[in-house]
Amino acid sequence: xxxxxxxxxxxxxxxxxxxxxxxxxxxxxxxxxxxxxxxxxxxxxxxxxxxxxxxxxxxxxxxxxxxxxxxxxxxxxxxxxxxxxxxxxxxxxxxxxxxxxxxxxxxxxxxxxxxxxxxxxxxxxxxxxxxxxxxxxxxxxxxxxxxxxxxxxxxxxxxxxxxxx
Length: 165
Fold this sequence. Notes:
This protein has helices at about 55-80, 90-110, 120-130, 135-165, and strands at about 10-15, 15-20, 25-30, 30-35, 45-50. It is mainly alpha-helical. The protein has two domains: about 1-65, no CATH class; about 80-165, no CATH class. The strands form two sheets. It has a three-stranded antiparallel β-sheet with strand order 1-4-5, with helices on one face. The chain has a two-stranded antiparallel ribbon with strand order 2-3. A hairpin with an 8-residue loop joins strand 4 and strand 5 (about 45-50). Helix 3 runs antiparallel to helix 4 (about 135-165). The longest helix is centred in the last third of the chain and has 31 residues, at about 135-165. The radius of gyration is 25 Å and the shape is extended. Residues about 1-15 have low confidence and may be disordered.
């Protein structure tokens, strides 16, 4: 393994980033290692760059996988719960906002028996702002769910008829 980080998963790369117009205005980047991770069902491997030269490639891939799941969770939270920005800049305030959003999501799921959608959060905001009572919001949500279930049933029946005829 001659160089630090060199081996089965590729050598450590020393890169420089150009930040100015002149050649003497470049900043050195940390040494990077290329990690190739085989992906089931794909011919091309997933290529990762890491500045941690000591971890095994398998650990780097596992950490990346878990980090990606966290990214997907926050994307879902932003899309479904309209969590577009934090109301507080303190860690305690951000934590509180995340807990409230997660609790609201779970309560909606428990009440509706289905995965909460954007419309459910909009209705919840009406109740929280005092523009509608909780009973009114739940009634509207139940009507909308029933309408969506009827529409889905009609689509399935229409597709089944199309496949038969």
